Amino acid sequence: MDLSFGRAIRSRWLLDPEIIFLNNGSFGATPIEVLEIQHDWQRRFEREPVAFVRQHLHHELRNAAATMAAFMGARGEDLVFVENATTGVNAVIRSILPLLDPGDELLTTSHVYNAVRQTLRYAADIAECIYIEVPVPFPIGSAAEVIEAVRRAITERTRFALFDHITSPTGLVFPVEELVQICKERGIMVMIDGAHTPGMLPLQLDELGADWYTGNFHKWLFAPKGCAFLWTAPERQAMTHPVVISHGYQKGYLAEFDFTGTKDWSTYLSAPAGLAFYERLGGGNIYRYNRTLALDAQRVLARAVGVTPPAPQEMIAFLAAVPLPSTEATEVAANRLQQWLFDEHRIEVPIFAWDGHLLLRTASQVYNEAWEYDHLARIIEQWIARAD
Ligand SMILES: Cc1ncc(COP(=O)(O)O)c(C=O)c1O
Predict the structure, then answer these.
(1) Ligand 1 in contact with 363 (CB < 6 A)?
(2) H or E element: which one contains 78?
(3) Domains of the chain by residue range
(4) Ligand 1 near 108 CB (within 6 A)
(5) What is the pLDDT of residues 40-81, one digit of tens each?
(6) Of 94, 219, 221, 354, which cross-links 199 as Cys (Cβ 3.0–4.6 Å)?
(7) 84 lines ligand 1 (CB under 6 A)
(8) 10-residue mean pLDDT series, the chain (388 residues)
(9) Could you give the residue ranges of the DSSP H alpha helices within the chain?
């Protein structure tokens, strides 16, 4: 494969050539050749749907799970496919409901992904628990600030904690190894939401020591949309159930998750094709290229806004968020700016209203180039000048 990245490789995606696409973070982007492999799986299924499900599905799914697990330092039998990280989180949080007592605390941080926040709030409502969102600052000086904030917030009533590996609105790499350890030392059940991690950071799931870890393959590992996993520590598998209960109930973790009703399994079965694409490009090449772009993006955008980079380099992988000067840090203002960038400048980049700031968050994937962030920075300078 030609290893030139940027525009040289962009034709491998269906991405609109008219758009500067700086938002791989929201849904990922699937290469055409992976979509073609997905289509091959669909054709194989449609040729004889019954035989496919009865004779091949289990074996093919388990093969795909074993391949993906090996890439993440895990055993195939601990990994199941789910549609997305939201579903992985929901499966776990609903599974722990019977273990919760009124007054127990469910803990996360202020950088939590909003859908996950709502799932935790739902659990707290049902089980009469207390939902705790630990404030973690942004701009931030070091990962130690996350650890300290969490350490201080834990109490004797903390029962379950959920931490992002890479945060959504702020794009930070959180020190999950230390956070997991803090929880394990105190007997707190701990889940990591690694929605962005596969393909962005190396994983050693067996060594991490979390109770649960969920992550998407469709964001950064080039898989088709709706392709994610849930990893569960062996001692937690008996209590962990999918969101949809089906024939496999009480027949074991894999039986419960591997069949939750008829669906298009081609997404899951194509995960190894996404991984193969990643490996052909070279994980190390991807990491160096994307991270360099992300650090450049952080630098040029911070300069355009007139602030110092809001996070240290060790907390940056492929996402970079910068706070924008704005008197109106609302969702309406965020959507207005995002739409203006798209309509007037053909730039796709997310803007979030978060903790009293408007945040602009870039993503860097191999089809991006440095000039795209420079161009965005010039537009942001114009937007600031216009607002003054
Ligand atoms: C930290 C985090 N968790 C969960 C999700 C949800 O991912 P999905 O839409 O694939 O469920 C996202 C999506 O951006 C995320 O950033």
Answers:
(1) no
(2) none
(3) 7-30+282-387, 34-276
(4) no
(5) 999 999 999 999 999 999 999 999 999 999 999 999 999 999
(6) 221
(7) yes
(8) 83 98 98 98 98 98 98 98 98 98 98 98 98 98 98 98 98 98 98 98 98 98 98 98 98 98 98 98 98 98 98 98 92 97 98 96 98 98 88
(9) 7-10, 24-27, 32-47, 49-51, 58-71, 85-96, 114-127, 143-153, 176-185, 205-208, 253-258, 266-269, 271-281, 283-305, 331-345, 370-387
Q: Does domain 7-30+282-387 have CATH number 3.30.457.10?
A: no
Atom from ligand 1 closest to the CA of residue 196: 16
Beta carbon of 116 within 6 Å of any ligand 1 atom: yes
322 alpha carbon – ligand 1 mean position (Å): 20
Q: Is there an atom of ligand 1 within 6 Å of 111 CB?
A: no
- Is the CATH number 3.40.640.10 carried by domain 34-276? yes
Q: Supply the residue whose CA is at minimum distance from atom 16 of ligand 1.
A: 168
Count of beta carbons in the 10 Å neighbourhood of residue 6: 15
CA of 85 to the centre of ligand 1 (A): 6
Closest CA to 92 of 184, 219, 210: 210
**Residue 2 burial (C-beta neighbours within 10 Å; 0-12, 13-18, 19+):** exposed
